[in-house]
């Protein structure tokens, strides 16, 4: 299965546990990346609980700078 990008901040954005959230940064910086570890809404709509690679967890609602990549 190939990764599918869903533009965030638009209706229809959904995630599943295990999906990757990527926040695009300014050129020259590494994007901020995390994994969806829990859903607040059963239909997969935001917000999500994300464990960031930096080692902490947050409640996260994607905006236009973020996208979701489906897990494999």
Provide key terms for this protein:
72 residues, mainly beta, SH3 type barrels, 6-stranded antiparallel β-sheet, globular
Give an overview of the whole structure.
It is built from no helices and six strands. The chain is mainly beta and 72 residues long. Strands 1-6-2-3-4-5 form a six-stranded antiparallel sheet, with no helix packed on it. Helices cover 0% and strands 39% of the residues. The chain has strands at 5-7, 20-23, 32-39, 48-52, 57-60, 66-69.
Question: Given the C-alpha coordinates, what overall shape results?
Answer: globular
The main β sheet shows up as: 6 strands, antiparallel
Total helices: the number is 0
CATH topology: SH3 type barrels
Reading the helices and strands in chain order gives: EEEEEE
Helix content: under 10%
The domain count comes to 1
Question: If you average the pLDDT, what whole number results?
Answer: 84
End-to-end C-alpha gap: 6 Å
Task: Please report the total strand number as a whole number.
Answer: 6
| CATH architecture term | Roll
Low-confidence stretches: 1-11
- The side-by-side strand order for the widest beta sheet comes to 1-6-2-3-4-5
Beta-strand fraction estimate: 35-45%
Rg: 11 Å
**What is the name of the CATH class?**
Mainly Beta
